[in-house]
Design a protein that fits this description.
This protein has a domain of about 30 residues. The protein has two helices and no strands. The radius of gyration is 16 Å and the shape is extended.
Amino acid sequence: MPPRNRTTSGAPSASLVGELLESALNSHQGTFMVVSHDERFLSAIGVNRRLPCAEKTAPSVTV
């Protein structure tokens, strides 16, 4: 794939990285778990099972 959508720093754009991630996940034959709020992304990678979170905010974690 030829380079495209590159910023002036030479780093790939977020949209190109997203496309590459979607492609990799779609070609994966095994199971994987994804955490995302992006409905378009979840649909694009074929998510067919969801476990919704009850809370609207992330819990505090002490390390």
